Amino acid sequence: MTPQASQAPKVAIIGAGIVGSAVAFACLMRSVASDFLIYDIDTSVAHGQVLDLEDATFISSATIASAAYPSSPGYSTTTATAQDCGQADIIVMTAGHRQAPGESRDELLHRNELILRDVLTKIAPIKSTAILLMVANPVNILTCLAQKLSGLPPSQKTFLTSSNGDLGVAENCVNALVVGDHGDKQVAVWSSATVAGQPLTTFAEFEQMNTQAEIASATTNRIYDIIEHKGASAYGIAAVVSELILAILANKRIVVPLTVYSDRYDACLSLPVMLGSRGVGQIFYPQMSTKEEQSLQEYVKANQAICERYQHIRGTNSTEYEE
């Protein structure tokens, strides 16, 4: 996807709730694009978010539109429809139920896959060069279903997951991956984790940290802690999504862990990939221990079974897309 020089790239955000509005705000603050569409099944909420966000457009002079409502006097907004969102260069899917306290991601899937199907139907036809950023959870299964339903190539659908620990060094100096999933079934790849090129396991601080299992558990449970205290997470997600959009529009070709379809595993799972203007480029497969690879294979099998079950129950008629 390389937008024409004469036409500003358009970003559509599907879902005007806590996450969708946070994503829009983060994008405005970073001036990642100048043309935004916001769509929500509750058109009043979408319009209210646009009115609120318009007050921040002096930072970036962006244009924001919502469906079903006319332009606001004095602001550079336009009306938008669901079909307009399907013609955006980047489509950010945030619509979905939030994860309830104590609810597993598998339980959440039953509620959010219906929303995904409804949205993809409403925004059709989808622009063939559009890049779909799947933010709704559980992201791996929804990415799998979106791949079948949208008709877009696998390289144009993605999402980010990440983790970190505390070694007394700057966070961006730690190269440690969580692959497969983000949550209960994630696989922490300790065997290839490094700091400044040195294996993580050689650091005394690492040995003093509780245990690998407890560190991984803390990463897994972080989202549940956030949900318990405030109901939903938004800021970290918004920061990540704004960075992804910027990387795509600027063709940065950065390497980040994203949920993508892998031919090797025949499943959608989180792996390090190169991200640029055409979406996902090369996929990188980290070296893993036998135990880590076994855990990942077990996750993949479970992932495939769930995807096949939902495809069988609902059917997989692809959404129309437009050249």
Automatic annotation (TrEMBL):
**Transmembrane feature ranges:** 12-33
Q: Which residues form the active site?
A: 182 (proton acceptor)
The superkingdom of the source organism is: Eukaryota
- Per its record, how is this protein called by name? L-lactate dehydrogenase
UniProt keywords, alphabetically: Membrane, NAD, Oxidoreductase, Transmembrane, Transmembrane helix
Family as reported in the entry's similarity comment? Belongs to the LDH/MDH superfamily.
One Pfam family per UniProt:
Ldh_1_N
Kindly list the biological process annotations in GO that this record carries.
lactate metabolic process
**Domain (Lactate/malate dehydrogenase N-terminal) ranges:** 10-156
Domain (Lactate/malate dehydrogenase C-terminal): residue spans on this chain = 166-301
Protein's organism: Mortierella alpina (Oleaginous fungus)
Q: Give the matching InterPro entries.
A: L-lactate/malate_DH, Lactate/malate_DH_C, Lactate/malate_DH_N, Lactate_DH/Glyco_Ohase_4_C, NAD(P)-bd_dom_sf
Q: Where does NAD(+) bind?
A: 15-20, 40, 112, 135-137
One GO MF term: L-lactate dehydrogenase (NAD+) activity
